[in-house]
Every structure is written in C-alpha cells, then in structure tokens.
Design goal:
Belongs to the cytochrome P450 family. There is one protein chain. The chain has two domains: 1-66 and 348-386, Uridine Diphospho-n-acetylenolpyruvylglucosamine Reductase, domain 2 (2-Layer Sandwich); 67-344 and 410-479, Cytochrome P450 (Cytochrome p450, Orthogonal Bundle), CATH 1.10.630. 48% of the residues lie in helices and 8% in strands. It is built from 18 helices and nine strands. The chain has a four-stranded mixed sheet with strand order 1-2-7-4. Strands 3-9-8 form a three-stranded antiparallel sheet. The longest helix has 32 residues, at 266-297. The protein starts with 12 loop residues before the first helix and ends with a helix.
Amino acid sequence: MAGGRRPIIGHLGLFTAHNSLPHVTLGALADKHGPIFTIQLGIHRAVVVNSWELAKELYSDHDLIISTRPNLTATRLLGYDMVMFGFAPHGGYWREMRKFVILELLSHRKIELLRDVRASEVACLVNEINGLWKEKNMKRLFGDMTLNVIMRMVVGKRLFGRGGGGVEEEEARRCSEAIRGLFHYLGMFVLRDALPFLGWMDVGGHEKAMKRIAEELDGFLDGWLEEHRRKRGAAGDGGGEGEQDFMGVMLAVLDGAKFEFEGHDPDVINKSACLNLIARGTDTTTVTLTWAISLLLNNNDVLLKAYQELDKQVGTQRPVNESDIPNLTYLQAIVKETLRLYPAAPLSGPREFTSDCVVGGGYHIPKGTQLITNIWKIQTDPRAWTEPLEFRPERFLGRTGGGLGSEYMPFGSGRRSCPGMAFGIHMVNSVLASFLHAFEIRRVGDDAVVDMTESPGLTNMKATPLEVLVSPRLPLEVYGG
C-alpha cells in the first residue's frame, strides 16, 4: 500500500487536489514504491501499474479478467447508465457494439470512404486561417474543425462555419462546451464513488453538473435522431442519403431488429453510441494537434525539418493530399513523439479485476480491485527511452508500429484499447501536414515560450489557449478561395 493514505478517504486526495495531475503524482509514487503499488480510494482498492513489463503481462496474459469497467457515478450519469459502449461492462452487448462501430465507422474501408469529408473540413480550416501574420487560437480552431469532421461522420451535419449545413453559432457553442464538459467530468472521481454513504452530500456540486450536461447533450441527440427519422420516413423504409452517417445506419439496423439487446432501449443505444464517438473523436484529436503545434513552436529545429520534408515530398504548388502522408515519415514521427510525451489519456480508463490475479512474480491482486495503468509513466521510462522527457521525433524513424512494444501504448492496450486508433492517427497526420504545409507559424512574442501546462481530467488538454502567429507560405492560388 502506497504511503500518504488518510483515514476513511485513503488516497482520494490524489485525484481531487486542485490543479494536481494524477499521472504525475502517481508517477512520483512509483519512483518511491516501485512499478506496482496499491492505493485506497475510500472503500475501494486500486492497483497502479507504472512499468511496461507489468503492463505487457497484464494485457497479454490476464486481459480477459481486466476487461470490464467499474460502476462509477460519472459513467452512470453521463454514459446513459453505462449503455455507452466505451464504459459498458464486458459482455455480449459491449462486444457486439464495438464490432458494429468498427465495421460501420472506424474500419479502414470506411475511413477511406469518408476521405472527402475530412478533406473538405481541412480545406475550410486552411481558408479560415489564411491571412498575413494573424494571431489565431489554434486550440479552438482545431477543436471546431475536428468536431465538424466527427459530426458529419456520425450525425451528418457540421456545427461550425459557413457553407454546408452549419447550425446556429450559439447552438454550436453550447454543444461544443457540453461535450468538453462531458470529458471533464468523465475523468472525475466523486465522493460517492469512494464513500457511497456520503453520496448525498454532492461535495462541489459535481453530480448536479453531470446531470445538467447529460440532459443538455441528450436534448441535442434527441433532435438529431428525430431529424433522421423524418428523413427516413420521407425517403421510405429504404432510407436515404441521411443513412450514410452512423446515426442513420444505426437507426436502420435497430428499427430492423437485426440485433436486440434485452433491457436496452434502441434509441438510448443509438444516442449513447453516437455521443461516445463524437466526444472521444473530438477531444483526443484536438488534444494531440494542440500539443504537437506547441512542441514544434518550442523546438524550431524540428519545425524546420518538418517544413523541409513537406516541401520535398509535396512541393509548394498544390495542397497536401492524404495520399502524401505515407511519404511524410518525419511528420509521422512528430505525431508519435507527441503521443508519447502527451498521451491524450495519460491514465488508462479504469478497469476492474473480475477474479484474483498474481503478476510480477508474486504481487497478488484480489478480485474487485480497480486497475489504473499510468501510460505517461510507461512512455517516459528512462529504461526504454533515451532522454525520455526530451522532444526527439528522430527516435521513431525506422521504427514501425509493429516495432513498438508495450513501452508505447498511447491508445491503451488489450480488448478495451481505443477502437478509433487508426482513424485518430490518420486524422492528426492529415491535419498537421496540411496546416504546416500551408502556413509558417511563430510564437506570439519574440522571446516567448509556449506554456506547456497540462490540465487534469480524462484527456490531457493544454491548460491555456494556444495563440499562434500564422502566415501563408504557398502561392495564393493554392489556397483555392
């Protein structure tokens, strides 16, 4: 048991202290107590894994017994009572939903079919930014663009910008803020989870805020679902153009009773799956793009190498195409190194042991213990990485995905790893390449260094805005409007 345990609450303060970063705090405890240790969260026990060797053993040899999720307040209130497949318990429902989501939205075939959606939104981003040495808040712009892409894929509409179905600005901002609130609270361990008998107190009003956000998001989803039903009715039972997006396909499948889940309302299944995809896809992609630009601005030598590769492989007479990405090996290394230093989720989503387990040659873990894998600590382990806290994309040159072992797991590992990994990497590579190719970027202020302060939460969002000076670096006609 790690030191610092307090009466009754145990180590809960590690997750509730103002502005504390749990992955850093747990990493410091690992330096003191070793690569695996137990903490007490009220009445619950959790084991924290901080080494790639133990992570490999767990996710390879014991993955089945760590494939369920604990029943937490946030996942109940914000995840449709754990119907949202990302937080559903391991079992038949979770398996079928994950399989369906991959087939209908996240497979390589589907990613390729949706190429035009991504390309058009990236072009809109470039056109919105275009101007001579203008100061831009890139965190917001990346977030808006990514949300547009995910929204078009999932529900067939964009939220921000002109041309092509953008909704009212106020509604768009409310939806965007609610989604970000969702992720803020999904990463929160509230008092009820640790000490259920004190749950009525709702210290900090977090449960009240969760219920408000859940109600607001459900209102948006209800509206989008009704739009799909109207379009489907107008087009006949065969559906129509609206069913090219995920919500439409899901509606047709559920209405057609091609598969049934006892105890789950079909509309709740549809809404929860769509919300899962929108929130996860938007937040994690935005986080990675924001950190990548921040790191490049603070490492000018790496930025210059990225520009040189883009000019050599793409030239300056046309925009970047997705077909260019395989040739941009240094840019891909930049993305991998960003994900190593700033994984979108520095701590794995909590899991729960469904039976007793022994790892590491004798460390006994009782059934019911929660598992927390410190991805950030593993990916900055000096035993696996030379100068682990330095930004060095060169370390990934010549190393393929198959050559990266358990010391690199930014999307998790095992059965519950992120199903959108291929899409997420593809999206970040494409947007980063297009943005850097189109614009010269500088820090705001000659001697300024970009603030790299992280914020606590389920995703590792940059705590402050990313203000960047941008200027076109291509001939005017390449921007196309």
